Amino acid sequence: MEEEPVTSSASSSFLLKDISNFKTPKRTSKNSNFHSPCPRFFTASKQTPRSSLSFRPRSRPSLSSSRSRTAASSAAARKLKAFELEQCHSARKEQARKEQSLKSLSKSLTVWLNFLYRNPKSCGCDVSISGDDNNVVRVDSAWRSPKRMRELWWRGEESENVAADISGSMYLALRSSLKEVCSFDDLKQRMRIYLRLGSCKEIFNVMSQVVKNIDEGRLKMKSHCPIVTDVGMKEKASKILMSYNPIWLRIGLYIVFGGESLLSSEEDNSSEQDISFLKMVIDKQFFLHSGLAKAYAYNKKVEGLYRPGYYENLGNVILKRILLLVLILDRAKSQTSLPLEYGIDGVDGGSPLLFTVSSGIKSSRQVLNDFLSSDVMHGEGNLLAHLVIVGYKVSHQQSALVEFDFQVSDLFVDLQDGVRLCRAIQLLQHEPSILMKMIVPSDTHKKNLANCGVALQYLRQAGVMLCDEDGMKITGDDVADGDKELTLSLLWNMFVHLQLPLLIDKTIIADEISKIRGFNMENLNAVNSTLLAMLLNWIQAICEKYDLKIDSFSSLVNGKAIWCLLDYYFRREVSCSCSNKDSHETRGEESIMSATDYTDAVHNFVLSQKLTALLGNFPEVLQISDLLEHNGAVSDQSVVVLLVFLLSQLIVKKNVDQLNFHKLLGCNCQNLERRHSLTRRQSASSEAVVHKKEIDKDTTEDAAKKFKAIQSWWRDMSERNYKSVVRPAGSTSYCLTARKSSIDIQRENAAIVIQSHFRRLIECRKFLKMMKAICLMQTVIRAWLTVKKHSELSKFSFSRVQEFPSEELKRLVEFIVERHSFVNLRRSVLLIQQAARIWIAQRHDASYPDLVKAAIVIQKCVRGWMVRSQHILGPAHIESASLMCREIGLSNSIIEAATRIQIAWKKFLCRSLHNQNSAAIKIQSNYRGWRLRRSFMKQKQAITKIQSNFRRLKCWRAFQIAWKDFVYRSLQNQTFAATKIQSHFRGWQLRRSFMKQKQTTIKIQSNFQRLICSSAFHQYKTAARSAIIIQPHMRGWMARRKVQRYRYLIVVIQRHFRGWLVRKELMLQRSAVIKIQRAIRCLKCQKAFHFQKQAAIQIQQFIRGQITRNRLLGASSLHAATTGSCKFKMVEGLFQSFELTLVIASVLKLQRWWRDVLLFKLRTKSAIIIQSHVRGWIARQKAYRERKHIVVIQSYWKGYLARKESIGQLMDLRLRMLKSAMNVDDSRRIINRLLSALSELLSMKSISGILHICETLDMATAHSLKCCEELVAAGAIGILLKQIRSVSRSIPDQEVLKHALSTLRNLTRYPHLTEVLIDTPGSIEIILWELHRNKEEGYFIASEILKKICSNQKGVKAVRKFPALLKRLHNLVEELTRKANMEKRNPRGTVAIRENIERRLREAVELLKLITNG
User: Fold this and answer.
1) Alpha-carbon distance 540 to 871, whole Å?
2) Could you tell me which Pfam families the record lists for this protein (predicted)?
3) Contact present, 458 and 429 (Cβ < 8 Å)
4) How far apart are CA 517 and CA 542, in angstroms?
């Protein structure tokens, strides 16, 4: 039977085999020479190896046709799948190309915007302010509007008067008060450097009042001066002062303290050293005073121990210093700042920011509030109010716009707020009015939309298309949401319509194209053609010189056209020298290198940007990283941006920059006329200009060296090209030597060029290999993260692999999933095998020797039986077979033949068995060798891979370090070179402007002198006629002068006479005053004498009474002394007590009588006062009533007169209204319109329409009962309740809620409509819910509605049906009571919040009383 093996698909029987020896699938090594019969990878997507032990029967012929059809259909399916994959790949490539183009364009536009914000003048923007070009950010020049600049011509006398006032003696008190702070004369001198005279006078006037209040003690710090003694408050005060810009702080401290060292620092003002220096000045100079410390010190050798009064005086000094410093800086900044209507202060002109961006203080008022807080000042509540009373006012407030950073880092994120877009429009259109409409800071989406809307409005007015290439309209939402394609389309349209006209002039381009092509371009329509078309014609004309065809801007991405452009213009500029013209005429037509030979786009683009940057400010439109990554430009629009700036530098600004260009070249190619003019200008210039030129010559050496190096390289290339093209004529030997030398030079140069290109190619390949490895690693990591992110690897299905866009990513994900499934399967099989082996080992541990012995015995018996059967039973079978054959009658020959066949078969079986044994032995040995070799190769590959990865990591780290150093050095060199070039360019520009001004002045003077000479003849001719006319005028003038003199004398006499009369009257008044004073003094003296007399009488009365009392007491004691007998002692004591009792009783009677007299007088006086007040109150009430009656009578009378006058007009108006009412359609009446609007209220979707309808209903129901009844009949209550239930917490919905509740309040004014509202289901619950829900005006409206409802018994019953809401009302009353008590205990709480809480509490209490009392 014939057998052949078959290929079985991944069956379960094969997967259940022992696969513990299989490792993780890896890529095959190219160095391995061993070929396994099995596949190198064991994955689920491939077939299992063919098994030598599995066989299948021969295929049946009936299935051949079906298999052929299946193979054909599978081939067609594979082709279809391949076609679909090809289409998918092409779509992905197109999408990737588009994304790369958009990314490159976004980077180019980002560079353009940053260049526009940084150097608007280089972009052609008009940065002057009202015709003034000197809009430099500085602190020593005051800002003057155009109107004020015109007024300065006639305000010279006023400034002289102000200077005289300041220099006068009117500030003696201020001078003496500020002597402990600073010297007044030095202060005045330093202030005039940075402030106008008017501002200086204003500051002195204000400080005079302030120091007066400080010296008199009405404005002072606390006695212990906590701003010095308290360390925390001192640090806080230092931080407040350091919130000023270091530039302004230096100026302020210089004005107050003096010291040129504060202004002599040439370092960065924001450096740490400068800031620490300012902190030390504030700490040692501002908060201390050495003179006071010496004057109040107990012991000069002991610091910090002072006599009483030191800290009080020091507080006054610090108070004067801070008030003077803040006022000076506020006035200086106010007069030097640029108003918003002219631009952004500190950017477009004006002066630097007064406060730093990082500080929290943004106004001078905030400085005073924080520095002089209630913890520092003595008895001050609102310090600014006190200062305003004395005239001290500070007004500067630093806006958020001047602090805004316009630098663009992420284009689509940074443009979402619309501020940078508005700034670009303002620069390109020179329209500062857009700054007034911006909202800064734009921290919400609503503000972003507003700013984007303003920007698009200005773009629409400027004629910029607000749509993309496909015609899709660009709105503010697209920019605010960061739509990439629409944002780039908007910026491209801005560049084309606003930036191109500033950089390119059509006439100049047309003239340039005419010069390039060598004939007049009359057919070139420069007026109707667009700027982009003119730009394309210009580059086409240049490329035609080099036999390079340019169809559109997309043909520029390879860099050939850029090379032609550089070769054409730069070679033409360099060829300008003082050598023989003929040689240069022949060489001017030859190119350095043909465009077809040089195809390195990266080199062309980089060279174009670097060379052009030497001529002036030039943006790096194409990034070097993008050029290296894509080996050229990706977006043709980015190349257009580069071309525009190249055109601006090479053609449009050529006349401006020609002098600087040739100065850097060091050429002397000026013609004779220009040389003579230059000589005349130099001779006419002053010594200062000569000194300035010498300084500029020293500063331009570095730039000249760099430019000469590039020039020499270009000249060498042109020389070599010229030598290779033009062969000089001469003798044969000279030609041969020249040819050999030229060949040697060419070979040497060619070798250098080849080496440089080969090195660059090697570096590019290394970089590309590195980028490829990085991309591969990134792809693998992304695939792993994607699989891990989507789901667990064990649950990941192969159907989800098709969801990934990239083929490489799909393949890696497939590989990771298969590997993970293989590892899981291998781990599970190993686990099963290990468990089975352990189980078997545990089972056979006990009886293992017996089982082995039994197995050996059984095997011996079986083998013996098999041998015996073969040897014993074999001959028996043969004999039996021969007997049978004889019985059958077979011949001996047949029997021998059978015997031989059997012998041959046995030999065959023996040989086959022997062969099988040898084959099995060989297979086992080969298999073991293959396993050992495979494990060795895997270990070798793993070691090699580890070494390669480690070396690659080391190389990558070294490359990163080297690249960072290279980038840092290149950036530093570029920055230094750019700074040098900018300084040279600015110096040259200033010198050029000065020469132009000087020429203009000379020309004006010559024209003026010529005008004088020409008018002299006409003056002489008209002299006689003028003399005749002048004489009568002179006589009339003399007569008028005489009359005026007489009139003046008369006025003087009258003035003296009137003065005499006034003096006489004054003397009379004085004498009268003296007499009155004498009489008053006499009256005062009489009163004083009367008082003294009465006092003397009272004293005499008191003394006489005392003498009388003493006399009476003395008589009683004398009488007691004369009685010497003891028997009369008792009688004498009784007599003495009786006499004293009489005296005391009389005294008490006198006192009682006197108290009654005084009480009567007091009662009489009190009654008189009460009667006078009552009579006054009655009189005032009577007068008030009479006045009110008079006003009412007057109003009625005036109303009667007005009605009497307008009765005719009213009748006419009434007739016209009746006539118009007859013609009005019923559907247009207000009630019908209200009903129709009410029916549309629930179906309306626009919130503005709903709000308008609710406002109309509120207004109509407030003034008309009929409207209320009609609306209630139409079901307005239910509709309004539904509308109230559907509103949200937004601001428009709250307005709708307020008007709906107000309409219900208008309906509840009428009792019958109130009952309808009560009967409406759910109305009470909704209104109670809104009462609990609202805290503003809606709360009070709902409270009024509930009060009207509770005034009815039926309404009270309806309200009591909702106990839960009533309980919440009780809780609301308790909460409001608690809040009101807390607000009363909080003295710093706002009055508005307290009043709102109390008003809500009153409303809730009244409503609760109505509900509970019924």
Assistant:
1) 107
2) CH, IQ
3) yes
4) 8
